[in-house]
Structures are given as C-alpha cells and as structure tokens.
Amino acid sequence: MLSSSENKTYKLNFVWRLSKKAVSDSFKKNKDFIKSTTFQAGEHENVRFFFTLYPNGNKEEKSDSAWIYLNILNDKDNIEADLYFFIDGSSNEAAHLEHNFNGSGNKGIDLILHNELPESKDKGFLLKCEGTLFIDPFNKWYLDNKQLKGRKKDLKIAVSKRVIKVHECLLESISSVFKTINDCEKTNPLKITGFKYDIVKTAIDYYYGIDKIGILNLEKLISTLSFVDKYEMNELKVTFPLWF
C-alpha cells in the first residue's frame, strides 16, 4: 500500500472497498462512521494512520454530504499530508486534503454530496486515495525557538491567491528581508509576487521541520533557490550545494 523513497517521502495508493451493507447502514444513522484498517507508514514504526468515513458528516450541518478523515497516530514527528480522494464511478473532481500534523491528530474534508454519489452497485463503492506523506522530525530551528510554543501562527503570506500561515517572529528571524518588508508595510496578509505558491511554501516549511528540497525536480529546485536568495533565507541557502 505504501512505498517509500528518499527523504522520508511516502507515496500512498489506497483502495478501500466499502460494502453496500456497511454504507447503507451508516447512511441511516447520523454521526455514524466506517473505520479503515490502521496502517504503518513504511519503516516508520512510530507513524501509523487510518481513515474514517462519515457518510452523513460528523455534524448536523454536514448531513447532506459524506466526509473523509485522515487520522495520524504519532508522538513527535512533523507530518505533512497531501492526499486526493475520489469515489470510483463519480464524475466529481478528487477531494484534496492538505494538512500539517505535529504529532497525533485528524483532519477531514467534504468528500461528496449525497446527490452526487454514483448509483450503488452490488459490490458497493470503491474509495480511492492517492498522494504523499512527508515525514520529518522537527528540526533544530523550530525546537530552539521557544517563542513559538503555545503561540498561534499570527501572520499570513498571500501567494497566487492562496495563503500560508506562519509565525511572524519565526519569519523575521529567518530573513532580514522579510523583517524589513514587514516593518515597513505592516500588512496582513503579506503579499509575495513573482513566485509560485508551492515554491514559497517549500522554503517556509523547511523552518518548520518539513524538508522537501531533496525531492524537487531541477526546475523547482532552481526556482526555490531564487526565492531563498532574494529573501536572504541563509540557513536554507547553504543546503543547496548538496543538490547540484
């Protein structure tokens, strides 16, 4: 089910066969759910996960759609999930779940409206999930920054109509350029142009213990280096000679 590659990246390709009876019974009960098997993330013995499907959502206001949850069981690692869910036979686009876990937790997304479900066959439904789990321990930058403990991410960065939430004190500590811009503009969100969302997020994620630099293709590696160089993110910049 899970295959591992370099840099603690795990490709997930999961097919969950849901029996017609299990789905039918759950649809009749509010807040009822179906739980998958619990899996281990490759060689990471301390990282386990499972899925829960709520055919009627897990709250009254969500009762007209099915929700899918990823549940992470872990005590210390920083885990980023980037997963796509879809029901075989449905014409809908895949539901995208993107979330950072700091230890154990769960995250759910709206999978499909009831009136958009494909016609149930004798075999029930096939729920498919494809994507990646990035597993990394918190790095020294994050652990040594005691200012972050118990604090919410209080600054937003706007990139290509999307938003990245960060700790303002961390951003200013890793880049004198960001500190200067923030001191002068005092805007929230802070807008960044000239770079794609995934490039900016990859660079910032590094300081939260999520190192995806080694899995970038050459084009994205060069773009990330350009961003890091422009904003003088020197702690990250010195790692780039390793990849060229």
Strand content: 35-45%
| Integer-rounded radius of gyration | 20 Å
- The helicity comes to 10-25%
CATH topology of the largest domain: Apoptosis, Tumor Necrosis Factor Receptor Associated Protein 2, Chain A
Count up the helices. Answer: 7
Mean pLDDT: 80
Largest sheet: 5 strands, antiparallel
- State the domain count: 2
- Structural class, from helix and strand content? alpha+beta
Q: Spans with pLDDT under 50 lasting ≥5 residues?
A: 1-7
Count all strands and give the number.
13
CATH architecture of the largest domain: Sandwich
By CATH reckoning, the class of the largest domain would read Mainly Beta
- What is the chain-wise order of helices and strands? EEHEEEEEEEEHEEHHEHHH
The backbone outline, from C-alpha atoms, is elongated
Between the first and last Cα atoms, what is the distance in angstroms? 32 Å
Q: Can you characterise this structure?
A:
α3 (168-174) crosses α4 and α5 packs across α6. This protein has seven helices and 13 strands. The two termini are 32 Å apart. It is of the alpha+beta class. It has two domains: 2-137, Sandwich (Apoptosis, Tumor Necrosis Factor Receptor Associated Protein 2, Chain A); 140-243, Potassium Channel Kv1.1, Chain A (2-Layer Sandwich), CATH 3.30.710. The strands form three sheets. It has a five-stranded antiparallel β-sheet. 23% of the residues lie in helices and 38% in strands. The protein has helices at residues 20-27, 140-144, 168-174, 176-185, 197-206, 218-230, 234-237; strands at 2-4, 9-18, 34-35, 39-41, 44-54, 65-73, 77-87, 95-102, 105-113, 125-137, 155-159, 162-166, 190-192. A hairpin with a 2-residue loop joins β11 and β12 (162-166).
